[in-house]
Amino acid sequence: MKKVLGVDIGGTKIRMGVVNEAGEVLADITVPTELPLYPYLEEQVLKVKAEFPDITGVGIGTRGIVDADTGTVTFEKELPGWEGTPAKPLLEAATGLRVELNNDANCAALAEARIGAGQGFSRVVCITVGTGLGGGFVFDGQVMNGANGGSGEIGHLILYPNGLVCGCGRPGCSEQYVSGTALKRLIKEEDVVDPTTGELAKPHTLFKLASQNIESAKLARDRFLADFAIIISTLQAVLDMDCIVIGGGVSESADEWWDLLLEKVKPLLIKPVEIKRAAFGNEAGMLGAAMLVV
Ligand SMILES: [Zn+2]
């Protein structure tokens, strides 16, 4: 069975997996992110290739905006020097293998669409609710990259005109209302106190407190879910996808809010769509990077 290398480049670590066509991980290696990223990345990839000489391709998922055609990161400020590096041609020359580069959220979506919760569906949107709000669109098994490599920026759909100013500089972006960061704000605004600590609740405990019928927690939760439902409805109206996959850190508490979200989404849908929980956690980026070259 064909084997490839999937590489997920994060701000602090790089995770590399030797993955077969079926998505099985044969080796899982994590190294710290070192700057400058190139040629460090090349050295790490060559090390894995020496150990697994039968890999047939290298897929890379990275932070930032990526031009997938040229295999270059076009916008990334957290990893100095990485922006503008033509990683695809450099790595192809160094390894003699096919190399593909894409954004990490797109890779996570590809993993879910090909071998995860979206398997068997043809139009899959993956929504990642972590610290921020991200996403990726995979149609007929292919990542939708967009003209500038910027597709899938669900977090910057404007939800409230003249609303809270986003990190992107514009007011009212969805990320300000549906994300781990937004939960922190909602907890403050609704003054959700965790009775076991006597302090403001943490985002991961908010939903449990709401399930325990604590009024302030319910208010915060319901504001969050109402906004989340609007985002899902908007995406579905425009894209008519057949599956929405929800993942990311906030989705770890989904047992506490999943049914309520579906209840809020239902009256807002124009066409039917399956809404499913992500199959993968942190490994999604690495698996999806591998799927770029399977
Ligand atoms: Zn924004």
Quick one: biggest sheet? 5 strands, mixed
Strand order of the largest sheet: 3-2-1-4-7
- The CATH superfamily of the largest domain is identified as ATPase, nucleotide binding domain
Can you count the helices? 8
Order of helical and strand elements: EEEHEEEHEHEEEHEEHHEHEH
- Mean pLDDT over all positions: 96
- Class of the largest domain in CATH? Alpha Beta
Shape assignment: globular
Uncertain spans: none
The number of strands is: 14
Bound molecules: zinc ion
Q: According to CATH, what is the topology of the largest domain?
A: Nucleotidyltransferase, domain 5
The CATH architecture assignment of the largest domain turns out to be 2-Layer Sandwich
Query: What distance lies between the first and last C-alpha atoms, to the nearest angstrom?
Result: 11 Å
The chain-level structural class is: alpha/beta
